[in-house]
Amino acid sequence: MAVLGVDFGTSNSAAGVARSGAPHLIALEADGQTLPTAVFFDFEAKKMLIGSAAGRALLAGEEGRYMRALKSLLGAPLMREQRNLLGEKLDFIDIVARFLARVREAAQAQTGETYDRALSGRPVRFHAEDARNAQAEVDLREAYLRAGFEDVAFMYEPEAAALSNRALLQRDDLGLIVDIGGGTSDFTLFRNGAKAIDILSSYGVRLGGTDFDRALSLETVMPLLGRGSQIRHAFGSDTHVAPATIFNDLATWQKIPFLYAPDSRRLAKDLAQYAVEPDKLARLVSVLGDELGHDIAFAVEAGKIAANVDGTGEIDLRVIERGLGVALDEAGVDRLLSPLTQQMAAAARDTLTAAGKNPEDVTHLVFVGGSSLMQVTRGALSQAFPHAQVHHGSALTAIVDGLSLAAQDAFN
Ligand SMILES: Nc1ncnc2c1ncn2[C@@H]1O[C@H](COP(=O)(O)OP(=O)(O)OP(=O)(O)O)[C@@H](O)[C@H]1O
Ligand SMILES: [Mg+2]
Predict the structure, then answer these.
(1) Nearest C-alpha to atom 7 of ligand 1 is from which residue?
(2) 171-209+335-393: which CATH architecture?
């Protein structure tokens, strides 16, 4: 039975199989092998778009519901809450399942094979908490089954990356995979043996590029919408700080769709009515009313990447108000994100401790995952392993490459 390797990522997904011992990736988008893990329920056309098409529909202002970072919801009770979408009652497992079914159909159409089984990647830890972490895999398994697969096996994402990058190491070298993705950071310490790799330990934390976006949004954009601003009491002259939750949710990719509900909109209006700075809270009201949360998240992500690549960037907020924007530079990004990159580096060190090794023992450090392109992550992680040779694996396909190589043997 043919087995499809699937990297279901927080931000981007990919699928592939092995051909003559090399990974062969499925073209999931017109121009590439990976596709954004995003869906858009188009209310007018009455269909579900996925990948880049979903993002284009959102940015074009089509009427509908956009969702990204669905992987971050796995393991949470709301995965099983149903909502009405395009005339059907769907829970979030159904939505993930439909996304995976599209991936399966594309693979079958391109290869002519039928894929009844999948080898799926999974982060070492979806959540810090054990019960949620276990439930997340249960949820993801169910999504694969609802997508039409008869069975699914799981492999830790960084172990897949170790497989696809072992050629960088000489025999007996000690490698550390550093996979900093959209939702999680994952690490695998491995020794390159004569025939196979020997995994010494794997570990991970629930922190990734979407958390970078969140931190940047909270500190730079949300204050423009009234975060930290004073609200007058209805009676008397006292004031209090605007409640934090609504800003936290608006800055968090996977929570944005939940804000487009009457209770949040009412809260925003109440805050605006009593605000000491009404202009700021008026922006919050219009962002919730016009459903601009994801537009902001995309603007923050684009600003983050520009600041990382060019040294300076802008979070362009013209969708909210003419001329509105936030300038970002490398130093500012560094300052705001270094508490997160320090936690990533600590998790990398814990991976070594679990195997009884020291940072000096690591001979090769292999960076994969989109957020390993961030200078701040590279800096913090390379500093932690001063003796290691640093390699940059293929940021977005290292994991699916490894899953493709391992897929056919995963059920033997
Ligand atoms: N050039 C870049 N500079 C900085 N960050 C980038 C760049 N390109 C992509 N990213 C970030 O990489 C992240 C996505 O990386 P990746 O595709 O590896 O994650 P994922 O596999 O979907 O997530 P996970 O493995 O955590 O489930 C996003 O947060 C994105 O903003
Ligand atoms: Mg990934």
Answers:
(1) 370
(2) 2-Layer Sandwich (3.30)
pLDDT of 234: 85
Collapse the DSSP code of 224 into the 3-class scheme (helix H, G, I; strand E, B; otherwise coil) and give the result. helix
CATH entry 3.30.420.40 includes domain 2-159+400-407? yes
- Burial of 180 from C-beta contacts in 10 A (0-12 / 13-18 / 19+): buried
pLDDT of residue 31: 87
How does residue 412 score in pLDDT terms, banded at 50, 70 and 90? confident
Question: Measured from the CB, is residue 396 less than 6 Å from ligand 1?
Answer: yes
pLDDT per position as a tens digit, 235-257: 888 999 999 999 999 999 999 99
CA 64 to chain centre: 22
Of ligand 1's listed atoms, the one at least distance from the Cα of 395 is 18
Ligand 1: residue whose CA is nearest its atom 5: 371
Residue nearest atom 25 of ligand 1, based on CA coordinates: 181
Report every protein residue that has its C-beta within 5 angstroms of ion ligand 2: 9, 181
